[in-house]
Design goal:
The complex is a heterodimer of chains A (303) and B (250).
Chain A: H1 2-27, E1 34-41, H2 64-77, E2 81-85, H3 94-99, H4 102-110, E3 115-116, H5 126-133, E4 146-147, E5 160-165, E6 168-175, H6 185-188, E7 192-193, H7 196-210, E8 215-220, H8 233-239, E9 245-247, E10 259-262, E11 268-272, E12 280-289, E13 300-302
Chain B: H1 2-13, E1 22-32, H2 41-58, E2 61-65, H3 79-100, E3 106-108, E4 121-124, H4 125-131, E5 137-144, H5 145-158, E6 164-165, E7 167-171, E8 177-182, E9 185-186, E10 192-198, H6 199-202, E11 216-223, H7 224-234, E12 246-248
Parallel strand pairs in B: 3-10, 7-12
Antiparallel strand pairs in B: 2-4, 3-6, 5-10, 5-11, 7-8, 8-9
Helix pairs in contact in B: 3-7, 4-7
The chains are: A alpha/beta (303), B alpha+beta (250).
Chain lengths: 303, 250
């Protein structure tokens, strides 16, 4: 069912991109098209099992074991796939209350998650509780705007990670929400929150210029959008440049499709979030070539 | 490897710099995790022992409830709210007294914090998780009498059956105060009172701004859900009732 939708969309995309391709053929006929697939979840909140079949909103939806089936199918289709999570892995079912996040991390490792960022609820058993579960995670935690220097997490969290898939360098960096007022100080202790926009500009420059990344992905737990001027994924997208995709969380936002936001130099950035509790899996497919032929706004985006 | 080299040569042969890959097309879609997708066996088997252990714990019978408890059996106080407030008073007081030598005068929770009704029958650990899924802890705030007066007006204005204990508050039809007693004594503006609540409300949750006037706060490091579990364990049969602690007189 889902698969059919996807093919239909691809076909439409092909027709749409047809004009551009024709133009390219005459200049660089041997160009190689690279295909990178990004899969993502957010705010799974310890929802290891599916919702009950009689659940009012999400009857029978979700569940880690089914998500893994889908992830494996997609990996078979395209081995150049990354699987990412945008935080709030913890809290929401007795699995967390009983095991403190151990099972969540073990299952994510079994499913081959490539990276996750830290959400506010991941501090629910304190910063020590998070550290205690980290040995169960065989994937890196990525955050660039929390300073953990004076905490037990010092040296445990990377600002970004580079993944190379089919020769394409993918830089993934993480952003977290301001903890003060949201999480008890007793839990996050001396974790310092730093301005996400400043940090993003610094990191993205590094990813582009020094790390020579072809794709830049922000794994964010800032929240999709707020009525106030609080920093959000949409605001971040508009205030920065050189990010290709922002994968968000925190606000449990169900988007009808990924949003397209113009960045500070008028190029399009994708911003996505897939609700919560693991009822959805987000999928973004990047097709890259060396033609350099794109319209002025960036790549053709089909959502 | 051979194929990879071949590919590199082709790319290098083209007029563009070989490493200059940029996105030319991006597609986004959202995949629903529906019951139609087959669950992966190895993942399910891995979860199984964790699940069995939780189910066993959650179904453990702690007490018996002879009748249904809903949130709708009273206007300004309910049996389920009184159960929670009284449990909090009974189990928090010895801890507080042990730490400070002082006693809790009042318990205040919020009506919205009762997350589920309780059907008659066996009370299990799962019941405590349903009524109180959050991780909130018991805190005791010391307030001056005048701030307690502010709290009383908050209760009157909200018109909700916020669970209370240690206080008797009776209103006239027009919402003026007919009687207010704390631990059976009239409220005195110039003395201090110890109010047990949860850390969410202490921080001004549900607009309980009067807690910002606390002179002292002590965290008992006791989760409300664990407190309920302990309370259920010590009781054989639960028989909470709606009473006269917060009412409007007709």
């Amino acid at each position: 069912m889902e698969r059919r939708t996807f093919i239909k969309r691809t076909a439409a995309a092909g027709a749409f991109a047809g004009l551009g391709s024709l133009g390219l053929v005459s200049f660089a006929p041997e160009r190689a098209l690279k295909h990178i697939t990004i899969l993502h979840t957010n705010d799974v909140h310890s929802h290891i099992e599916p919702f009950e079949p009689d659940h009012a909103q999400y009857p029978g939806m979700g569940g880690v074991a089914r998500r893994y089936t889908l992830v494996q199918q997609i990996r078979q289709e395209n081995p150049h796939t990354l699987l990412l999570d945008a935080g709030d892995i913890f809290q929401g079912t007795p699995y967390f209350n009983f095991y403190g996040g151990e099972l969540e991390f073990k299952l994510m490792s079994k499913m081959g998650y490539d990276a996750a960022t830290i959400g506010n609820h991941d501090f629910d058993n304190g910063i020590d509780g998070l550290l205690a579960q980290m040995p169960h995670a065989e994937f890196p935690f990525i955050n660039a705007n929390y300073n953990f220097e004076n905490t037990v997490l010092d040296g445990q969290i990377k600002p970004y990670q580079i993944f190379v898939r089919d020769g394409i360098r993918i830089g993934v960096f993480g952003l977290g929400i301001e903890l003060e007022g949201l999480v008890g100080k007793k839990l996050y202790k001396e974790t310092k929150y730093l301005d996400p926009i400043d940090i993003t500009q610094e990191i993205v420059k590094q990813l582009k210029e020094e790390e020579k990344c072809h794709l830049v992905i922000c794994l964010s737990h800032l929240g999709y959008e707020y009525k106030s001027d609080k920093i959000s994924d949409v605001r971040l997208a508009g205030a920065t440049k050189d990010i290709d995709l922002i994968i968000g969380g925190h606000t449990h936002t169900f988007l009808p499709e990924p949003s397209v936001v113009l960045n500070s130099i008028g190029k399009e950035v994708l911003v996505n979030q897939v609700g919560w509790a693991g009822v959805n899996l987000g999928r973004i497919d990047f097709y890259l070539d060396t033609s350099g032929k794109k319209d002025s706004r960036g790549a053709t985006i089909i959502v | 490897m051979k194929r990879y080299l071949f590919l590199l040569l082709i790319i290098a042969g083209s007029c563009k710099f070989s490493d200059n890959y940029t996105p030319t097309r991006i597609e986004g879609t959202q995949l629903e995790i529906t019951p139609a997708i087959k669950a992966n066996d190895s993942i399910e088997m891995f979860i199984q022992p964790y699940k069995l252990n939780i189910d066993r714990e959650m179904e453990q019978v702690l007490a018996y409830l002879p009748y249904n408890l809903t949130k709708a059996d009273g206007e300004l106080n309910t049996a389920i709210g009184n159960l929670m407030a009284d449990a909090l008073m009974e189990l928090s007081n010895p801890i507080f007294e042990n730490r400070t030598g002082d006693k809790i005068d009042i318990v205040l929770l919020n009506f919205g914090g009762i997350r589920s009704s309780i059907p008659k029958g066996d009370i299990t650990t799962r019941t405590a998780f349903q009524v109180m899924p959050f991780e909130n802890e018991v805190v005791v705030a010391t307030l001056k009498g005048e701030a307690v007066r502010e709290m009383i007006h908050y209760l009157i204005d909200s018109g909700n059956a916020h669970p209370v204990a240690g206080i008797e508050l009776q209103l006239e039809k027009d919402n003026s105060i007919r009687k207010v007693l704390i631990q059976g004594e009239p409220l005195q503006d110039n003395r201090t009172y110890n109010i047990a609540t949860n850390d969410y409300l202490l921080q001004g949750g549900d607009n309980m701004v009067f807690f910002s006037r606390a002179q002292k706060v002590i965290n008992l490091d006791y989760k409300i859900r664990n407190l309920l579990i302990d309370y259920f364990k010590q009781e054989d049969t639960l028989t909470p009732v709606r009473d006269q602690r917060f009412i409007r007189v007709n």
